Amino acid sequence: MTPRGRRRAGMVRPYTPTGGRAAPTRRTLDLATLLIADPDKPLHGLDAHSRRLMQHCLPGVLSLAEVSADLQLPAAVTKVLVSSLVDSSHLVSRDPVPAAQQHDRQLLERIRDALINL
Protein backbone atom coordinates (compact mmCIF):
# COMPACT_ATOMS: atom_id res chain seq x y z
CA MET A 1 0.00 0.00 0.00
CA THR A 2 1.33 3.43 -0.89
CA PRO A 3 1.39 6.25 1.65
CA ARG A 4 -1.36 8.84 1.35
CA GLY A 5 -0.64 11.39 -1.36
CA ARG A 6 1.86 9.19 -3.22
CA ARG A 7 1.24 7.11 -6.31
CA ARG A 8 3.20 4.29 -7.81
CA ALA A 9 5.29 5.16 -10.85
CA GLY A 10 3.33 4.69 -14.08
CA MET A 11 -0.09 4.81 -12.40
CA VAL A 12 -2.53 7.12 -14.16
CA ARG A 13 -5.86 8.19 -12.72
CA PRO A 14 -8.82 7.02 -14.86
CA TYR A 15 -10.01 10.57 -15.55
CA THR A 16 -6.66 11.57 -17.08
CA PRO A 17 -7.01 9.73 -20.43
CA THR A 18 -10.58 10.96 -20.84
CA GLY A 19 -9.78 14.61 -20.18
CA GLY A 20 -11.99 14.60 -17.09
CA ARG A 21 -15.06 13.13 -18.83
CA ALA A 22 -16.69 10.52 -16.63
CA ALA A 23 -19.43 9.11 -18.85
CA PRO A 24 -19.58 8.14 -22.53
CA THR A 25 -21.82 10.16 -24.82
CA ARG A 26 -23.27 6.94 -26.22
CA ARG A 27 -25.12 4.43 -24.07
CA THR A 28 -25.14 1.75 -26.77
CA LEU A 29 -21.50 0.75 -26.31
CA ASP A 30 -20.76 -2.53 -24.58
CA LEU A 31 -17.75 -4.83 -24.44
CA ALA A 32 -18.86 -6.74 -27.55
CA THR A 33 -19.30 -3.61 -29.68
CA LEU A 34 -17.18 -3.83 -32.83
CA LEU A 35 -14.98 -0.85 -33.68
CA ILE A 36 -13.91 0.10 -37.19
CA ALA A 37 -11.43 2.94 -37.69
CA ASP A 38 -11.74 5.34 -40.63
CA PRO A 39 -8.27 5.29 -42.24
CA ASP A 40 -8.94 8.57 -44.06
CA LYS A 41 -9.50 10.61 -40.89
CA PRO A 42 -6.43 12.58 -39.79
CA LEU A 43 -5.06 11.72 -36.36
CA HIS A 44 -3.55 15.14 -35.68
CA GLY A 45 -5.53 17.09 -33.14
CA LEU A 46 -6.36 13.96 -31.11
CA ASP A 47 -5.00 13.55 -27.61
CA ALA A 48 -2.35 10.87 -27.05
CA HIS A 49 -4.74 8.22 -25.73
CA SER A 50 -7.23 8.70 -28.57
CA ARG A 51 -4.43 8.61 -31.14
CA ARG A 52 -3.08 5.39 -29.62
CA LEU A 53 -6.56 3.87 -29.66
CA MET A 54 -7.02 4.83 -33.33
CA GLN A 55 -3.65 3.40 -34.33
CA HIS A 56 -4.57 0.19 -32.57
CA CYS A 57 -7.89 -0.07 -34.44
CA LEU A 58 -6.60 0.85 -37.91
CA PRO A 59 -5.59 -2.63 -39.11
CA GLY A 60 -9.12 -4.03 -38.87
CA VAL A 61 -12.19 -4.65 -36.75
CA LEU A 62 -11.74 -5.05 -32.99
CA SER A 63 -14.19 -5.34 -30.13
CA LEU A 64 -14.24 -2.74 -27.38
CA ALA A 65 -13.09 -5.44 -24.93
CA GLU A 66 -10.06 -6.26 -27.10
CA VAL A 67 -9.08 -2.61 -27.38
CA SER A 68 -9.49 -2.09 -23.64
CA ALA A 69 -7.36 -5.12 -22.80
CA ASP A 70 -4.67 -4.43 -25.39
CA LEU A 71 -4.30 -0.79 -24.32
CA GLN A 72 -4.49 -1.77 -20.63
CA LEU A 73 -7.26 0.72 -19.91
CA PRO A 74 -10.37 0.11 -17.80
CA ALA A 75 -13.45 -0.62 -19.92
CA ALA A 76 -15.22 2.49 -18.60
CA VAL A 77 -12.34 4.70 -19.72
CA THR A 78 -12.21 2.98 -23.11
CA LYS A 79 -15.96 3.55 -23.56
CA VAL A 80 -15.52 7.30 -22.97
CA LEU A 81 -12.64 7.50 -25.46
CA VAL A 82 -14.47 5.39 -28.05
CA SER A 83 -17.69 7.40 -27.76
CA SER A 84 -15.76 10.62 -28.44
CA LEU A 85 -14.08 9.05 -31.47
CA VAL A 86 -17.44 7.80 -32.77
CA ASP A 87 -18.88 11.31 -32.29
CA SER A 88 -16.02 12.77 -34.35
CA SER A 89 -16.49 9.98 -36.96
CA HIS A 90 -12.98 8.64 -36.47
CA LEU A 91 -14.53 5.32 -35.45
CA VAL A 92 -17.66 3.47 -36.50
CA SER A 93 -19.29 1.24 -33.90
CA ARG A 94 -21.32 -1.79 -34.84
CA ASP A 95 -23.33 -4.17 -32.72
CA PRO A 96 -21.85 -7.65 -32.77
CA VAL A 97 -23.42 -10.21 -35.06
CA PRO A 98 -26.31 -11.67 -33.06
CA ALA A 99 -26.23 -15.32 -32.13
CA ALA A 100 -28.50 -17.51 -34.18
CA GLN A 101 -31.97 -17.71 -32.78
CA GLN A 102 -33.27 -21.00 -31.47
CA HIS A 103 -35.12 -22.90 -34.18
CA ASP A 104 -38.38 -24.73 -33.70
CA ARG A 105 -37.29 -28.31 -33.03
CA GLN A 106 -40.60 -29.83 -34.12
CA LEU A 107 -40.44 -28.02 -37.46
CA LEU A 108 -36.90 -29.26 -38.06
CA GLU A 109 -37.92 -32.83 -37.20
CA ARG A 110 -40.86 -32.65 -39.65
CA ILE A 111 -38.54 -31.38 -42.38
CA ARG A 112 -36.05 -34.18 -41.63
CA ASP A 113 -38.81 -36.80 -41.73
CA ALA A 114 -40.14 -35.43 -45.03
CA LEU A 115 -36.65 -35.57 -46.54
CA ILE A 116 -36.19 -39.15 -45.38
CA ASN A 117 -39.53 -40.14 -46.96
CA LEU A 118 -38.45 -38.76 -50.34
UniProtKB/TrEMBL annotation:
Chain spans, region Disordered: 1-23
Biased composition (Basic residues): 1-10
A Pfam family it matches: DUF742
Top-rank taxon: Bacteria
Cross-referenced PANTHER family: DUF742 DOMAIN-CONTAINING PROTEIN (PTHR36221:SF1)
Name of the molecule in the record: DUF742 domain-containing protein
